[in-house]
Amino acid sequence: MSDKFHDECGVVAIYGHPEASKLAYLGLYALQHRGQESAGICTSDGERIYTHKSMGHVADIFTSPVLAGLPGELAIGHTRYSTAGDTVLLNAQPFSVACNKGKVAVAHNGNITNAAELRAELGRNGAIFQASSDTEVILHLVAHSSERTLAAALRDALLQLEGAFSLVFLAQDRIIVARDPHGFRPLAVGEMEISGGRKCYVFASETCAFDLIGAVYLHDVDPGEMVIAGPEGITRERWAPEKDRAQCVFEHVYFARPDSIVFGRSVEESREAMGRLLAREHPADADLVVPVPDSGVAAAIGYADESGLPFRHALIRNHYVGRTFIEPSQAIRDFGVKLKLNPIRHLLQGRRVVLVDDSIVRGTTSRKIVRMVRQAGAREVHLRISCPPTISPCFYGVDTPNRSELIAFDHKVEEIRRFVEADSLGYLSLPSLRKAVADDKHEYCYSCYTGDYPTELVNIESLIGTRQKAH
Ligand code: AMP
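Above: the input record for the complex with adenosine monophosphate. Below: its predicted structure, written as tokens.
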């Protein structure tokens, strides 16, 4: 049984650039918000595969000497977030192996929902696993495939996977990327011209990575599609028939950066639309609109725009909060939140405040923030959330806790309002969220708001149990 879900990751791949490792590093730097626990890069110089991975932040891991030790024109990179105790280096990605299909490395964003079954089966056939990560399963499937070429073996392996996966593979002379047939997690393709009119191909979870390295966004990898960049150029091929699209709406609600284009749509545009629709559905008799930074900013701008209320940054975020900090021995109330956010009293004093955030998960942080705003002198606090109540865990790569820890699973909106101590509470409705992401064709996954999952989940009870253990 795999004991860890893949949570919240970012991937990049570079083909055909003399400074591939530096570009991968910059791409990962732009994707740091997708995972802060560990990061890694694998490169190929056509012969060997070089790897460096470590715990920590991208900028701290990849120093000049480290990057100098990653030669070659091909690179893949990964940044990973995980919350459980097994955040050991062994689980850091990319993973690489030398097998009968050559030397291969892989990095993965998503969550393979049948990994436990595949792992048990492979184990029975003699496979030895180094990590508890599901991604290793993919490499074993590739190695075990009776197909001769890497692309064919990959197709063979991918057809056995269920769930969410945006994958980047590095071989000695090519990059192969693929997306699952539902297209849960994003994966974009870009290109850049380099000296001599040569083209370099780049792939990333979000287009903000392309902006930093000066690449142009071309299109997304289609669900069920594989894109191969090799000496013969770039080719697109379908490895599986496309299923009903299930693009993760939470990318637009919270996870992606607002300056990215995700699933072909601007994240900022979606978030502002969420805020505008929220203002229509849940207006408030108030004096000003305040975002919870950074996650609530774009929606709060939309809310202020639509309601005509002034927008103020009355909560200031310290962007340099690290993972560990020394608490004073005499406990300070709500210390963790105070470390991250501080209110501007004179903006809040005596005012009726609309506080906008993207989601309430357990409710504990939201309560601390509501209290903080009130203690800073706000007369009323009207909390507005730019998505529907989160009632069900995600099995496709977003880190949500077990169902029993989700406050909206077993509490009504009025009960949640009382818990977070707000004067009023309003969530965006599902139809409005759909409208905000322009989902006319039903191409998004909303399972964290509906409990309806777009794929069959084998052993759902054990998955839920695992989730509880892991978090
Ligand atoms: P809480 O009130 O404790 O449920 O925390 C809500 C806060 O957590 C909001 O400010 C959200 O922006 C943030 N949040 C929501 N989902 C996630 C997630 N998957 N990972 C990290 N933070 C999240």
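Notes for the reader.
Residues 254, 292, 295, 357-366, 398-400 surround adenosine monophosphate (CB under 6 Å).
The chain has 17 helices and 23 strands.
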